[in-house]
Design goal:
With 106 residues, the protein is mainly alpha-helical. It is built from 2 helices and no strands.
């Protein structure tokens, strides 16, 4: 292989390498390009996600509020039940005392 053939082969190889690199660059940009429609879709998805997170946070806050309210109602009902049971016990004791007094007079 003489000098002229070597220069021609080298020029062809470099030209093919340049063409292959340019084509690869074009492919990468073609597949990774983000269009305005894609940006709009991403913006809508981000907005929907933000609204969903806000809704979730509101639901969690509502659940905590209802849980606290229910706990207070349960505590109040238990206190009322204890008071009613104490009143019933006192009434039974009084009724028993009155029965004993009534039977003792006869």
């Amino acid at each position: 292989m003489n000098r002229t053939e070597f220069v021609i082969v080298t020029a062809i190889v470099l030209t093919l390498a340049f063409a292959l690199g340019w084509f690869a660059n074009w492919l990468v940009h073609r597949f990774t390009r983000v269009t305005q429609a894609d940006l709009g879709e991403l913006e809508r998805m981000a907005h929907a996600l933000h609204e969903a997170e806000e809704t979730r946070d509101q639901a969690i806050a509502y659940i905590h509020h209802r849980d606290d309210e229910t706990a207070r109602e349960i505590a109040q009902l238990q206190a009322e039940l204890r008071a009613a049971m104490d009143g019933l016990r006192d009434s039974r004791h009084e009724a028993e005392t009155l029965r004993q007094q009534l039977h003792g007079r006869q």
